[in-house]
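Researcher: Last one for today. Full complex below.
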Amino acid sequence: MTTTHTLAVEHLTLGYADRVVIDSLDLAVPPGRITAIVGANACGKSTLLRSMSRLLAPRGGHVLLDGKQVHRLPAKQLARTLGLLPQSPTAPEGITVADLVGRGRNPHQRVFSRWSSEDDAAVAAALDATQTAELADRSVDELSGGQRQRVWIAMALAQQTDLLLLDEPTTFLDVSHQVEVLDLLTDLNLTRGTTIVMVLHDLNLAARYADHLVALAGGRLYAAGEPAQVLTQECVRTVFGLESQVITDPTSGKPLMLPIGRHHVTTGAQTGVGVSVGG
Amino acid sequence: MSTTTLEAVTRGRVRRTRRRHVVLTVLTLGIVAAFAVSLMAGRTFYPPADVLAVIAGENVPGATFTVGTLRLPRAVLAALAGACFGLGGVTFQTMLRNPLASPDIIGISSGASAAAAFAIVTLQLDEVGVSVFAIVAGLAVALVIYTLSFKDGVAGARLVLIGIGIAAMLDSLTAYVLSQAAEWDLQAAMRWLTGSLNGATWQETVPVAVAMTVLVPLLLSQTRNLAMMQMGDDTAAALGVRVERTRIVVIVAAVGLIAFATAATGPIAFVAFLAGPIAARIVGPAGSLLVPAALVGSLLVLAADFIGQFAFDTRYPVGVVTGVLGAPYLIYLLIRTNRAGGSL
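Model: Here's the assembly. Have a good evening.
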């Protein structure tokens, strides 16, 4: 499954009621790569992701999948190409893991069609890929946060889309499970060529795992490109209003942002920034 | 993919589906049995041969009237109305993800009932007119509670509370209409206050049956979409469901079923509210609850009507019996949600 699908937004303007959240944004998602969208709270990251998966109609501009407007594509056809995992989906009470993952098969099924062996195979593959096979008959209610998030990702995988959008897939997880989820998504990207677009809170994990980093500020694109080019002290200052020091992560070779607050700052760090702290 | 996982997945699914099929079969047999008993037993017992002869159209002295005119339409209406209430109830409970959000709690049944009582007692309309009145009122109530509870999307708890208030207003409206009627009698009053099958004839039964042939397939065609919407609107939309359209189709179909049944029998207390949770308990978490809840509703009304007629010295309307069953469950649910953190 090599991805040739292209996803892009052109002059996209989004908003709720009288508030404009995204203002005339242009963005192209590199096919077959991992893109992470970062930005301050309420900068429109999730709104952008919702619109890219047609959950929110644009005020202006377009979201284009292979050059066609996603808001005009038939719902099920789109759902066979592009999947979205929202930030806090609800599991129906008492549902088993296998049945929940099976719901990802919906776009591939007709109104009164029966469950096929192809559906079983897709569910099994998704469980294996997320290492949740041993949980298959368990109730989702009984799972830990990390297990539950892997199960939701498995549901999105059973959808078998070439593009997968995830809204903060690591929220509410402890650090080891955050890394686990991001490793899993990287596996998917490497083995299946799935294009991944995710909104991430953690700037350093975003810089480490993304091939392409998108920084939003005030509803506009601040910078997009390789993490090493995007994640700079200037970027952190503009996007988050925070002074910082950006070094090269000795583990990954990717940029690593060290925040500078009003306390616990040694002189060495201040010279690293080159500007007066708190000014 | 490993073959062991595939085998485990297939095995688990087959096991859950099998349990579902067993439960559906048992429920269907239960309905057939309750239906048969309703036709045979009563003040006078008629053997199966007599009952079958009456159904076949033969003239059996005594049985033709008692079974053919009194018991048969009553049992058919009980089974059909029960299915309508069960379907309507579980649809709302599933869509709003709240067991309290059943049409008989949130005022939709009360609206249909008030309109039907008004149409019969005050306007003296025929069955079709009554059904039209009931369905319009049911939809209007659904629209009103939906609009009143809409604020950045619909929250189930707000909708339930507003619905309970609306239900109380409409119930007092029904009581007022009944108290103004010239020929006010207890039978009629019971029918519109708690639901009753007394005096059921084919005239009331046929509109329900016709409505079901249209609305039940329409509702069942949305089974999968409804299941997706249990996971939230965004997840459902991401899985290819057209959420708004589904919601409209489902509300119209469910309100229609509730309204037609209510126009025929009155709001049989708590059947819509009970059928879904009972179905969920016995079917387990595999698949849709629509069909199981319809069967549970049928069985509930058939059994409750039989008990109400013959278990005590006095004949009670079916709604009194289902009310006795439903009220404790409502209290249990309220206590449980209260313990779970105070939100409905």
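The first helix of chain B runs from residue 3 to 40. Chain B has 14 helices and no strands.
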